Amino acid sequence: MPKLLGIGINTMDIYRHEKRMYPGGNEFNIAYHAAKNGTQAAFMGVFTREDPLSLILYHTLEEAGVDLSHSHFQKGTSGFAIVDLVKGDRVFVDWNKKGVTDLYPFVFTPEEISYINTFDIVCLSRCARVDNQKVVKLAQSGAAISYDFCDDYTKEDIICLSPYLKFAFLSGSHLSETEVKDLLREITARGTETAVATRGEKPAIAFDGKEFYYQKPMEVKAVDTMGAGDSFISRFLTAYLDVGKNGENADKGAKIKNALSKAASFAAEIVQKRGSLGVGYEMTEEQTERILQTLKGGKV
């Protein structure tokens, strides 16, 4: 069984139009989905015992079987974002910017690096509160890195990180197919083994430095696109690594095709649910007011 580690944010997505809240966060979602799909998954994040939202986030992963042994607890508030839903697409309205993950990012001690290097793949992203230098540090220590550039990457990010990645993901729905392919070529030419771009309703494209692979999205009625990319990444990696563990001599192209197919199928399941995971909680008027006051600079 492959081992996957997510390092990054955990946050509560507040759907104010529903008065419900949904656990989420890029690497949080990836670890949760990996565990649900039978992978040995862990998450390194920053939580707080002072905020009920953070405890819900922690227990959501714990109940899914995700190892949290190397997460931290700090004083402060949970991260959260205010979300509206427009025709199935999530729109971030605001976020608190001073959650514990923002205030206490990982430094990575020698003991933590040793732990990180026990995993087959380590998932990070531009949103993980782990700067480029720390990503490079982990890669140079021997960690196999999967990195999500998201859709707001810079040229400097591509140049800095591509030589150190095993997998690179990005959102390319705002780019033409030619632009996406050129970008995937650049990323792999700089050293990344496999680069993948999701493109919304258009086929995802993967490139291994030699060949392009396409995967059409499954035709389903999307209820909520929140976390669709994270679910795609999680299933792609677990499917790819599972074949690697059980068939080391399997053709790389076949592994990519298999991973793309399973990733598209799983993402189609997730977008038919509310929130990033399909796990949500009712909010009281008191909780809603407390969160709004926090955004306005009021006391928690």
Automatic annotation (TrEMBL):
Pfam families: PfkB. InterPro entries: PfkB_Carbo_kinase, PfkB_dom, Ribokinase-like. Residues 168-276 form the Carbohydrate kinase PfkB domain. Signal peptide: none annotated. The keyword Ribosomal protein does not apply. Keywords: Kinase, Transferase. The keyword Transferase applies. Belongs to the carbohydrate kinase PfkB family. This is Fructoselysine 6-kinase. It comes from Claveliimonas bilis.
